[in-house]
Structure formats: C-alpha cells, structure tokens
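Good day; I would like, with your permission, to put a structural problem before you. I would ask you to consider whether the tokens describe a fold that such a sequence might reasonably adopt. The full record is reproduced below for your convenience:
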Amino acid sequence: MFEKIPLAGVDNLEWLRLRKSGIGGSDAGAICGVNPYSSVMKVFQDKTSEDVEEQDSEAIRIGRDLEDYVAKRFMEASGLKVRKSNFMYRNVEHPFMIADVDRLVVGEDAGLECKTASAYNADKWADGNIPLHYVMQCYHYMAVTRKRTWYIAAVILGREFTYRRLDWDDELINRLIDVEQDFWDNHVVKGIIPPPDGSRACDEVIEQYFYTAKKESAVKLTGFDEKLNRREEILSSIAKLQEEQKRIEQEVKMFMGDSQYATSDHYRVSWGNVDSVRLDSQRIKAEKPEIYADYGKPSHYRRFEVKAA
C-alpha cells in the first residue's frame, strides 16, 4: 500500500523539501553504487542537510522540457496511453521510500519513466540495454507503488527513440528495499556518513564537509598503514602502465610521421595540429600587477599528499 501526497499547487522549493523526506527513484542507483554521476555519500548529504538547492543545468532543463515529447513518442510507438499522476507516493510499509513518477499507464498496472540521452551515450542503450541506475530507478518505483510493470522510454538526441519494459522481480525488489532501509536507518536517521566509494561525487562531498584545514592541527594516523602501502603499490602499477601506454603511442607516432590520420580495420588514429593562445599569468603578475589584481580569481582547496615517514 502507499499514500498519495498531492502535488497540485506545490512549488519547486516545496517539492525539493518533500524529496528530502525519503529515498526517491533517482537516489536508488546511487545508494546501490551503480550511478556513475552520484554516490551514496552524496545522497546522504542531500537528505541530512538543511539546504534546499534548486538544481538547474542544460541537461536537467532538456530532460524536463522534453518529458512530454518522450511520453508522446512512447504512446505512438507502444499503442498505450499514459497520463500524469500529480501525486508523490510514499510506501506505507517502508515510509522512507517515496516516488515522484513521470507517467502512469492507463488501463495497465504500470508506469513510465521518460529519459533523454546524449548521442554520446547511445551505446549504453544499444542491444536492448538500459543504464543500470535507471533500472534501479524503475524497480524503486515498482517497490513504492506495487505496480507490476514499468516502462522506460528514451529519446537519444539526434539519433533515435527507444523504449523497454521491466517486470516485477521479487528477489531484486526485496534486495533493493533492504539496501535502502539499511541506508536510511543506519546512516540518515543516525546521522552517520556512509563509507567512501572512490567516486568523484564522493570526493566533492568530502571537500564540502571538510573545506578548510585547521592550521598546524594533527591527528595520530592509526589503522591505515596497510591501505597506504596498497596505495603505493597502485601508484607504482599506474606509473608502469602509463609508461607502457606512452611507449605504444610513441611507436604509432613514429609510424605515422607527418601524416594526420592512420586507419586499420579496428582503429582510426588522428595526430593533428592544435594551435592555442594561453595567457602568461606570471608575466602579467610581474609586469601588470594592477590588471592581475583586478582579474585574478582566488581559489581555495586542500592538497592531499602522502610521504614516507
């Protein structure tokens, strides 16, 4: 069972506050560790912070503006009819699970998720595939609404339209509920930051939490020697692999000589000319300090270094 939260008359800021009250479909992939653009730590930050930030980027706007178009294309391609719900749904048994769905399918126990994708990501939809974080989003919606089927439709900009069907999977949905409940009960409710996962999104959150170091402060480093030894091994392996990579590139360049392109049955290599102009900031600072002061942009960050004792 689920409860309906009316969205009619709810402005965007209030909608964002509602999203903080539970785990939504777009959070599911990050919590499961399969979203390449987010992380479980980022979701934790969103759910536990007081800030309500209106996110707006070109990609977000394109997805929002083209949602109706994607739904229309789905109806044309599938023969099914869809409608907006104008509600947010909350699972009664698991109230930390919420869903703000794009469309419901008329006359069928199903919903629809509408997506737009860059042509650069067309391969992620090839051969019937669906990006994994979108799969988890759809199953999250099924878990909340108890609907047995969820469709996902995507317009790959400038390339094609495609859609897929996902059906109820007891094992997957039960596992998803367990993962989300563990995250909510043991991290959000208790205010305990989830462990890092190595993602760029995780880096961003850590830098926001610990923005500035207290000068001359120090802590005893305990329990990390083995991991830092492993870090040194990884860095050594990376250096060797990069050297091998460079050697291969150099061999190809020697073969190409002054040719701009080289092709084979499997590869197309380009080694072209690039002309650019860069400002000599050191010279400007020395010769035109007033201009440097007017246009220089200060930055702040923390540098991470590891040295042998």
